[in-house]
Amino acid sequence: MSDVWIVGAGIHRFGRTEGRSGLDMGVAAIRAALTDAGVDWADMQFAFGGSDASGNADTMVGRLGLTGLPFINVRNGCATGGSALTAATGEITAGRYDLGIAVGFDKHPRGAFDPMPSDWGLPDWYGAAGFMLTTQFFAMKLARYMDEYGISTRTLGRVAEKSFLNGSLTEHAWRRDPVDIETILAAPMVSDPLTKFMFCSPAEGAVALVLASGARARALGAPAIRLDAIAMRTRPPGSFEVFSPCLDLERGGSATRIASRDAFEAAGIGPQDIDVAQLQDTEAGAEIMHMAENGFCRDGEQEAWLAEGRTRLDGRLPVNTDGGCIACGEPIGASGLRQVYENVMQLRGACGARQVGGAPRTAYSHVYGAPGVSAVAILSR
Amino acid sequence: MNTRPIAAGLFDEGASPRLRGGRHRQTGRFVFPCPQGGERDSYDEVRLASTGTLWSWTIQRFRPKSPPYTGPEAFEPFALGYVALAGQTIVEARLTGMAFDAIRIGMALRLTTLPFATDPDGTTVLIYAFEPDGDRAS
């Protein structure tokens, strides 16, 4: 178990903020995290940060102060935040530094992402033919899973309904209005079986976390949350990933499964010990599949879990307590750290109307993204 | 009518079209399409099976952004899926010749081609697709 602590957390609200760049939001999140920790930018010994589409994180030193600190940019798709946190954790674990910061931010244009084939090692015809859409992948991974394990579309609706309800209680969320399940199910299909209310949308936002060694955290005296374990992994053979012109007949595991396994092993606990979880919910089905891939239930048990409300705020394992990507939107570089921010707040008991009961002691976060990357972080207090 | 595949060498045209895949020279692993460039030497080009079963599917309901999409401006939703070719690989493909509400995982399919777009000189651009295989209807 690591001796790395989160002593400060800051967020710039997700959604749309006209007239403010991704870098502006990153600076705001860093300032909020520094204030939260009771430290100054000049105290930061190192920084890791990144965005997918909103510029170079290290340019923020021009706004924050030219202290000469090492600031390393990270660009790792949906795992950008998780990778920044992994790298920052390593600096403290190695004993090189005892106080630093990880930041993730992004600002995407409206509409679906429009990746180019050559950036993904694919021939141009694949995009020309209309296959270069993340939405298709999520829908087809889900359609297969639903067929194999008996998941109903109503269960997808229940996930999205919970997301919007939780988002309505979350200051940093984008979607602040509840949406009822019948509206969700009756909405236009984007990519069958997923309706428009079941998908997250590209959006904007930023998160920063101040990290400290155990000794430094104690000296600061702030209410610290321990980062018990973090694991960032790439895909194993036979996984099912976005932008795949073909798949091996012999099906295998996933980046999520190995990141989860390794994080639990490092933390010395198991899924049954987790009190609150944030799981990548690019769409409602992803939350369902990731419940099993992260070991919280067996394949197919989600049908009963959702019907019984076990993942609601008052359930046995609340999942995506701030509404997740569905209610907060998806700024690629920021989402992974948003999950950790939400877990820090839940463990502090600082979540107000969306605070989960029972004074949670352990929290789990999981991101997944193209082309088969995942990062899992386990926190405790 | 002049026709061409959406990409040269992607598939054989004609009454009995075939996808051109690759088989890894060491491992025997099948892939589609046949890799080009730096990876090309590691693979033998092979004609993949022309029949298979549906592994998963969805409907593309909105017009994809251009670039990279090069289909016509007028957009009609289309079905696509992954088709398992026994003993080879699972290929991603358009689906055709079936109502959206008749699509079922496990259904028997065979390869065909269909018009995708028209070049400025009038040449019809063909894309590969799978359609219900009447002889093996499940």
Detailed description of the structure:
The complex is a heterodimer of chains A (381) and B (138). Chain A contains 13 helices and twelve strands. Chain A has 381 residues and is α/β, with parallel strands linked by helices. Chain A has one domain (4-111, 200-380): Thiolase/Chalcone synthase (Peroxisomal Thiolase, Chain A, domain 1, 3-Layer(aba) Sandwich), CATH 3.40.47. The longest helix of chain A is centred in the C-terminal third of the chain and has 17 residues, at 332-348. Chain B is built from no helices and ten strands. The N and C termini of chain B lie far apart (35 Å). Strand 9 (246-247) of chain A pairs antiparallel with strand 8 (90-95) of chain B.
SSE topology:
The complex is a heterodimer of chains A (381) and B (138).
Chain A lengths: L3 E12 L6 H16 L9 E4 L10 H4 L6 E3 L6 H14 L5 E9 L16 H5 L5 H16 L3 H15 L13 H6 L2 E3 L2 E2 L8 E10 H7 L4 E10 L11 E2 L7 H13 L8 E4 L4 H10 L8 H6 L16 H5 L3 H17 L13 E8 L3 E8 L1
Chain B lengths: L2 E3 L5 E2 L5 E7 L5 E2 L11 E5 L3 E10 L17 E7 L5 E6 L12 E11 L5 E9 L6
Parallel strand pairs in B: 1-10, 8-10
Antiparallel strand pairs in B: 2-3, 3-4, 3-5, 6-7, 6-9, 7-8, 9-10
